[in-house]
Specification:
The complex is a heterodimer of chains A (137) and B (231).
Chain A: H1 2-28, E1 39-49, E2 52-61, E3 65-78, E4 81-92, E5 96-104, E6 110-121, E7 124-131, E8 135-136
Antiparallel strand pairs in A: 1-2, 2-5, 3-4, 3-6, 6-7, 6-8
Chain B: H1 5-22, H2 36-50, H3 53-80, E1 83-88, E2 91-97, E3 101-108, E4 119-121, E5 129-136, E6 141-147, E7 153-160, E8 166-172, E9 177-183, E10 186-193, E11 196-202, E12 206-212, H4 216-224, E13 226-228
Antiparallel strand pairs in B: 1-2, 2-3, 3-8, 4-13, 5-6, 6-7, 7-12, 9-10, 10-11, 11-12
The chains are: A alpha+beta (137), B alpha+beta (231).
Amino acid sequence: MPKKVFKRFSSFVISFICIFSLAVPCLAATDNSARMTNIESAKCTLTFENGNVAASAKVTGVSGTEKCKVALYIQERQGSRWVTVDTCTEEEDRFVVSANSSIKAEKGTTYRAQATVTVWVNGTSESKTVTTQGETA
Amino acid sequence: MKLSEEMLYEHARKAEELWLNSLPSDDKIPEHRFSNKFERKMRKLIRSQRRSPGLNQFLSASKRIAVIALAILTVSFSCLMCVEAYREKFIEVITEIFEELTQFSFSSSRTEKTELGEITLEYLPDGMLEVYRECNSKTHNQSIYFEDIEGRRIGIDQDIMVDGKQSTMILDTEDADVSMIDFNGYEATLIVKGEHTILMWEDDVSVILVSGDFPPDEIIRVASGIHVSEK
């Protein structure tokens, strides 16, 4: 009897996984609130060089871009949180803008770079956030 | 009257004979038809009895392993719908596909230092003039943009990947035709959205992206003529 119950339960669990593996992409398809209309591409980079952690970010706007802005953050991991330890912001009236920042790296500390990029076209702005994977110094 | 065990023993045999005689003979009893389910169970039971206990245990374990493998495959497939990861040479790429964009995360295990070289081009469409150039030796990346009088742009971006470097990029892939093509022996991603084309590939040391407001053939022609001088 318990074996029969276990078999039924296992069948139910496997069916549940099969159904929801198809349902997730379907649900995702209903959300269209975060389109990339002004931003052509955005990039964020983190690297270690001579005892420093260096970060850079760049955004490129589509044709007709009036202004671009990059807010770059170097963050370090403190427990389960990411804490911003350096900030750099660049804003220019052209289709491409980049920002660069560098601080002394502490050995054993995990860092990541995060950039919030904004592009203005016809007076309307669009923002996206790009974050690198964490890397330990 | 009191019944004793001896009396029961004596009359039980007579009762048995009377009961058996009351039954119809074997040839008059219709043959019982067992259900198909019962027959299958019996055949399965007979098969398992014919096999050695060791073989039965092996078959039982195999079935369990098959069920677990199926469950793992199902879960893996559901994850692969969202995240595709593959390792190619020294540069590791994680591609996350969202509805409105695709995010590429690059990292590398390559320890050999490579300095940024100068990018030269064999081919550019007529009328293109350099409008922006940036070279960042700290983060090992450089970009060049060209533009013509009609406002059409071509951009070239090189990102040298070394051990400890992390790079993340987002590209607009909503309603775009995205395909993988062979480009000079490297697997390249070709993204075409309207008049805009992006070609991105990883060679042995860097990630290179060429984008522009031109058809794929023209962007591939520009990309084919890119040379990076070694330093």
